[in-house]
Design goal:
Rhopdopsin 7-helix transmembrane proteins; Beta-Lactamase; 4 domains; 5-stranded antiparallel β-sheet; 21 helices; 18 strands; 18% strand
Amino acid sequence: MVDSMYSITVLVYLAVLAYIFYQHYILKLNTRTYHDFNLVLIVSGVFVFVDCVWGIFASGAIAHRATLSFFTYLFHVSGVMMAYSWFRYTFRYLELEGSKIKTFFSYVPVMLVFALLFTNPKLHTVFTYDRQLTYQAGKFRAVLFLLEYGYFIMASLCVLLKRYSEDDRFKKARLNVVLSYSLILLATGFLQFLSSKLPWYSIGALFASIVAFVGNVLIERENDLKQKYSYYMAESKEMNEAMTAMADSYLSIHVIKLEENTSYRIRSGSGEEPGEETASAGADVEIKNVMNAIVHPSMVKDILRFVDFSTLARRLKGKHAISREFMDVDEKWRLSSFITVQTDVSDNPLKIIHAVQDIDDAKRKEMEYQEALKEALENQNVIYSEMLKMQAGGIVAVDNEGSIIVCNDVAAKMFGYKKAEEVQDKFRTLLEEKAEFDDIEQFKEDINRVMNKGGDCSYSFSLQTAKGTTMYVLANAKDYVLKNGNRVLITSLTDITTNREMEKKLLILSETDALTGINNRGSGEQKTIMALEKGMGGMFCLIDANRFKNINDTYGHQVGDKALIAIAEALSNSFRDEDVVMRLGGDEFAVFASSVNEKKIGEECIGRFFDRIDAIDIPEMNGNKIAVSLGAVFSQDLDDKSFSSLYSKADSVMYLCKDNKEHCSMAFYEVH
């Protein structure tokens, strides 16, 4: 017989268990482990509630033999169901659902327990109550408890074996948590078997829940941070390698987030170590300090205007890059450039690169050409003129009216002419008709200033070549006064296509997942948001590779990488070029298929993807197939069309597919 304190104690445990469930539920982690643990807490809560009611009757507070027997049956049934739920939770974490051990323990112990309870009314196999309502153990009661606690014994043994072969620190920490709660439940269950005067099993359920909740949440969050950091570092490494390859010509490179006013230093010309975050002063101060340290005092004022962050976003809007030449403290010529990496839906720059390039050799040759041309024009020197026409860079000289005095063949070919003699237009007219400027208004302002007041200026533009390719040109114009008093504007033209291609490569790398070559999370999410903000409806799919942990553990991480690359290729080949295909991190992928607004069309697209997944054959996997789970949602069905909303809805239905891990499966989010 138990006393009334038994039920009061269990009631307190039930309240604490309900609080744990609430705290876990509001986390809304949207992971398989999260949903599984919610189920464990619910089943454990049912058991503790039954234990509480059983205690009320067993204490004699309410003397009713039939009701007491009924709740004793419920106690044993809910106890074995709780044991099974913890066992299932453990094996799903260990990814052993398809194993023979899991199959055996899923059915046999439960069936035997129910058989014992079914025969109990006549044979008293488990328990009976005498006339004083005292609990009397049956001859097979120990067998029932052994079947029930066998779940914890088997779970503990599997965890120990897994832990022995696990090298990853975070995974081993998770296994320690799993082992802890399994041993807690096993120990308290054994105490419950020995004595029913205290609610040992409910105590075990409570402490196991606390250990699992605190341990798993903390470890999962720490591991999530680790994965995000690793993913970020993989992207950064790829970009850093590309930038390092450019290091011979770039003296300073910073990746800048304009909204946050932060920068990441890849290479610095001011002596700091690379790879450091901007100090608390901000990216604007960082760039100014770098430029102050290297720019010649005579040009500091002009360059500080160029790197002024208060006007930078406006000047960069809608442009790929803007540049400005300057001389450094060692009187060597450099080129300061801002390159757009990421923009918002309105084409405002969000992420940019600031780079300082060494152009001293090219600039000095260009200045020599200009001086030589000036001398040729002053002295009517035919030899000088012919020599200039043979130079590698383009040279154009115009008079006060803008008419071309001298133009070499290189400059003429840039504009689509075979020979310099074919160029008849005024140079400014030629530029405005054939060139596409980075900043047309700035070009007009600078040219008018130089033509009217003298001085020099630089600007850049692009031209379409006869082969259909794009050539990028940097122009440097300087006003000269000849000995006879006439003024000429000499402009040197340098082909900077190679530099622009390198800049484009940086842009592509910043948007691309380093392993698979598709959009990374940042660019994929941004492109999806831009499509949604433009009113484009479509289907959003969230994809997760089944048993990916097993692939890594069994065949190694290189094979795991091959699997991820194969999934990315299947995804890219199954959807259109205009659809946004992305890797979100780890084994999680997503795609936003614009204008796919019907379930039938969506199923066809996903079917093509599943066919390609089924066709993947990785030799090292010995014929074992890759499978994925996919959750889909149509944006037009939702009031909240944000990326986070689409992700959440797709994730909620993708979880429903997780029970079928052997084959690809999909589920659509239905709006009720």
